[in-house]
Structures are given as C-alpha cells and as structure tokens.
Amino acid sequence: MPNTIYFGENLPILQSLPDATIQLIYIDPPFNTGRVQSRQRIRTVGAEDGDRTGFQGKRYSTEVVGESGYQDKFDDYLAFLEPRLRESHRLLAPNGSLYFHIDYREVHYCKILLDKIFGRDAFLNEIIWAYDYGGRTRKRWPAKHDNILWYAKDPKNYIFNYEDIARIPYMAPGLVSKEKAKRGKLPTDTWWHTIVATNSKEKTGYPTQKPLGIMRRFIQASSYPGGMVLDFFAGSGSTGAACLELGRSFTLIDDNIEALQVMEARFRGAEALINWVGFTPSDN
C-alpha cells in the first residue's frame, strides 16, 4: 500500500479505510490541557544592542519568525475519542497494536475507555516516557513524563519484534559483566529520552512534536518491514519520518494546515513515495 497523507477531519477518513489492514496505530491526540498549545520559531542575528549574550560575549537579538498552535480543550473529551478508538480497533490487523500517547491528566479515564473497547485482557503495558526538560513549578512535583498505553487487537497474537529493538546503555554498567555492558540492555516500560530540544536538528517548530527516538522504538517493536502504520493525529509527521527510515508504509491524517505544511517541508525529497489527499504540495 502506498504512503498516504490526508488533510482533513480524521473520523470520516478512518471510516473510509478498509478493515483489518493496519499493523500498528500510534496516536498522540490533544491532551485536553485546557490551554492553547503553541510554539514560536525564532532565530538569532548579531546585533550590538541585542537582547542576549552568546559565545565570547557577542551580542545577539532574537526575532520571532513564526508561531503555530491549536486550542487543546474539549467539553467531552472521551466522547471525542471513543468513535475514533472504535475505528482503530476495526482497522487493526489480527496481530496489530495500538499505542495511545497521553499524560497524567486523562490517562486513567482513557484506560477505562480503552478497556471497554479492546477488552481488559488486551492491555499489555503502560509505558512511561520520562524526560528532564522545560519549566519547573515550585508548587508540586514537576510533571516530567507522558503515559503511553499499549493494547493488542488479540492479546494472544500480536507483533513484538524483541530482537529488533535497539538496545540502550545500562544505567549502572559496573553491576553487569563487560559483555552485557557492551551489548546494552533492552528498554523496560520506563523510557528516559529527551524531548525535541530547541537546538535539535530534527526540530520542526511544530508544537507537541515527538522525537524520532521514541517513534523508532514503537515501530521496530510492533510492525514488520513493509507493514502499514497509521497515525491520525499526525502533527509534524514524526511517525511517517520514522517509517521511511525503517521501511514501513504509513498513513497520516491531520486537519491542521500548519501540520501539512510542516510535513511537506519534512518530506521534501520523498515526494515520489507519498500520495497527498486533500492537500497539494507546492512546487518550491
């Protein structure tokens, strides 16, 4: 199946897709934070009266070159999610999986909903993605993790490519043999991985962009080369970028024109591999 990127509201597009054709669904829906999620894109230029000091005392000024965002608030969040999750269950292949990415505000409600749709026995893991970046409140323990719920279509038959998962260093290599320390260990259900930093080469400027290191791990573990991966809150297109690297096919959906523009720039050079629906890439 060809790689496809849809510009449009995701529910009717999901309803048009054929049954049992997707090996892996990863979604990072709006978190219902009640805030506008936005991110500025900035650049710095040399200026004697600049607002910041850089290397060797040189002065620089900061210019805002763009801003993107969306309103992250729902009157009934679960009513918004439920029909989309039911479509996800229909679309998954018999050995397929859903990775549902959320945070502490809604994770317990979402798990109850997913248990209802997939069945409690289909729940395989809650993955904690921990990071240490950004602001810190002094009023409570700073929230520095996201929750990722992993469900199988069939808990007795699902893809898990144990040997293909990239290994990571031991946190205490002195406690294991030199051979084990050199080989590294397989990740557990707690993943320490930085967010996409402002100076990262993979940064697109899109709010809520997820790092490729996280996406690669899902895709390596829970799909086969050539298999179809679906992300219907596609945002900056990190799922598609990881799929291109790892030899998977993908279907991405988003209804934010800024997301499509970010993906257009991100996938420049791979146009022949992608079918765009509802959006026409520029000739530049």
**What's the overall average pLDDT, rounded?**
87
Main sheet strand line-up: 9-7-8-6-2-10-11-1-12
What is the global morphology? globular
Q: From the helix content, strand content and strand pairing, which structural class follows?
A: alpha/beta
Instruction: Work out the radius of gyration.
Output: 20 Å
Largest β sheet strand count, sense and barrel closure: 9 strands, mixed
- Kindly report how far apart the N and C termini lie: 27 Å
The ordered string of helix (H) and strand (E) elements is EHEEEEHEHEEHEHEHEHE
What's the tally of helices?
A: 7
> What fraction strand?
25-35%
Give the total of beta strands.
12
Helix percentage: 10-25%
Q: Which runs of at least 5 residues are low in confidence (pLDDT < 50)?
A: 37-44, 52-56
Task: Tag the structure with descriptive keywords.
7 helices, single chain, 29% strand, alpha/beta, three-stranded antiparallel beta sheet, nine-stranded mixed beta sheet, 284 residues
